[in-house]
Amino acid sequence: MHGARISLGIGLASVAFAMVLGVTLGLAAGYFGGRLDALIMRIADVQLSFPAILIALLIDGVARVALGGERHEEIVIPVLVLSIGFAGWVQYARTVRGSTMVEKEKEYVQAARVIGRRPLAIMLSHVLPNVMGPVLVIATIHIATAIITEATLSFLGVGVPATQPSLGTLIRVGNEFLLSGEWWITVFPGVALVVLVLSVNLLGDWLRDALNPKLR
Amino acid sequence: MPLLKLESVSRDFDVSRPWLNRVIEREPRRILRAVDRVSFELQTGETLALVGESGCGKSTVARLIASLYAPTEGRIEFHGRRLQMIFQDPYASLNPRWRVRNIIAEPMQFLTEKKPVEIFLLQVGLSPDDAERYPHEFSGGQRQRISIARALAGEPDLLICDEPTSALDVSVQAQILNLMAELQQRLRLTYLFISHNLAVVSLIADRVGVMYLGRIVELAGAAELFSRPRHPYTRMLLDAVPDLGMSGKPRTPVGGEVPNPLAPPSGCAFHPRCPYANPRCELEIPRFRNGVACHAVEEGRV
Amino acid sequence: MILEVQGLTVQFPTRRGVLTAVDAISFAIAPGEVLGVVGESGAGKSITGLAVIRLLEPPGRIAAGQVRLEGRRIDTLPHEEMRRVRGRKIGVIFQDPLTSLNPLYTIGQQLEETILTHLDLSPRAARERALSLLKEVGMPAPEARYNNYPHHFSGGMRQRVVIALALAAEPRLLIADEPTTALDVSIQAQIITLLKRLAAGRGAAVMLITHDMGVIAETAQRVAVMYAGRIVEIGPVREVIHAPRHPYTAGLMGSIPRIGTRKARLLQIDGAMPRLNAIPPGCAFNPRCPRRFERCTRERPELMSAGASRAACWLHAAT
User: Fold this and answer.
1) Max CA separation in chain A (angstroms)
2) What is this model's ipTM?
């Protein structure tokens, strides 16, 4: 259970970070268009060509040099959150940008402009609620990938140390004993991961429907 | 002093391909002139309609006045305090995630004196209970009523109506047109009414401007325009309206289609379709004089 | 009669029960005749058209009734057979010309393919025929435009190509669903004239589905007015327009603005057409009807003779 707590914590925090960053940039890019849009989307393209692990290694390396090796264990979780978050924002930004460009042409947004609302107010109160549906779906899937990424990073030695076991590390450690009769080390955390991902997914679907007045 | 005055207003849109494609394929920039030197005035309490086929620039004029676009050239003077706009698509013009109460209250945040939302619901023939519902619970006609209520809540001096009934069924259209006429009388509203439907325009407008490829080709009182159209394009439009009276009057077949606005014809833009065109029409853009922009009318050939 | 429809009923089974979108309607179209089918959105007019050609989207299905084309029942034909009949005997024109054409083929290819599939002609003769069709629908310089793709054409020209395609196999029945709605008024007039001329010239039966009474007035000989899945009035166009017998038709006619009626109040029918899951008992129009009486709320009227037309309204009951 302790493992689930760390995994879920890292997953939620990094997804929240990626979501806030991605949605903000995507909204701005889609709403204002032009050069800002071009700039943000080019950064996203470049970012997309780096795997999450490289970015994580980079951030981890920088953190190690800046803070010194001995303090590394204390900051390992924030570093993981930042790394996984940075690797994930692009997907949100792209989705939100696309939907924003569609929504902003709709007449209710134009009506708000005629009424005299400021761009920021329109983006937050009109556009944002209407582009959040797909974002929530991505987020629920993303939590699963974030947990798996975390496991991979731990394997590479930049993740959670074995003293603080997460689901990912448990599965990986258990892997080595899979055929030696101690299958439960890896299977139970695995099942826990599946259940976790499934329930987060269902939660996401429910949240999306609950926020849509048409389905109430 | 007129409530609204447009002086030689133009608006260009850049419809070029992205920069890189242009450079690689050696394409020039492509500019679409959607509105070309449009001038008119609108007095308080009257209804001016702009009519024309798709791509004639009538909706762009509406959006220029509503400051949704900035004019490329020319001046727009608005001497009122506020304007509001009603849009064509009742399914897109209300935020699906907002309750009707918040939708109607939105324009009121800029007013010092706020009236209850229910007043506006009653004004447009809806029930006060509807305030707590969401847009998808209403039919197209009811949504258009909500749009009107939102516009009224902003206490506008000018109401811009962009094809407000084009997406509605005829019986619902009749309800909305009647409502708009009634509201105008009661609240002394000024309408700028954009439509492609000449019959609707003839019903609601005091004055009518006919647009073709970004320019106003004729502007006259509604009674006059419909009984004695002067510009050949106006005549053609009127001729094309299906005859419900079934009088069996012979219809002059209309040739051709609206040309590509990216490459408008030289001189008078209508000359390739005009039965009265002569060499002058191909060369010289007719000036707008005495309510019409046509060489043939000016020379007394029509 | 080329097309005979009898008691056609279309239902959509849904989770909350079976919805009847078209309710036991009957009509027939003679050779060279244009029957207008008019109604507001949700009246069931497009679904009627789709049911006749058996292109209903599932779960929609024909629940009862018969459809005969030149005397032969087509509502019970196997799918493969029906597909052949559709290609050979029925031409279809939809509202949006852009989606009716394949953007990846030239208009010439599309016409030739249709002709070769359904007529026994050599490729050379097919090309000849395609060109003459294009000329017939008023395409200027058909040879020059033969190898152009749909996106090269304007909306009006595309609709002409769609009409040429629909006529390619010399169909006996032409179904046109809102053929002019997406077009500008001046182009509309051209397409109406074209449809009228072609149908009369070929002796085909035309079912013209539209919400626009003006288009019907210009094109059709007879008109069927639909409301909530039923035909409420059917008769000669002039009769229905000038002397509507059903209060709904009368209201519909009164609510159409006409040029010259300045600043007048339009006749208006209050309320809206009922949803399919809430069709009132008795006459479906009774809650909105200014001339309703007791019987209307109780008993559903069938079409009965009313002047030169037939109307489903108790006002015309013999007793």
Assistant:
1) 71
2) 0.84
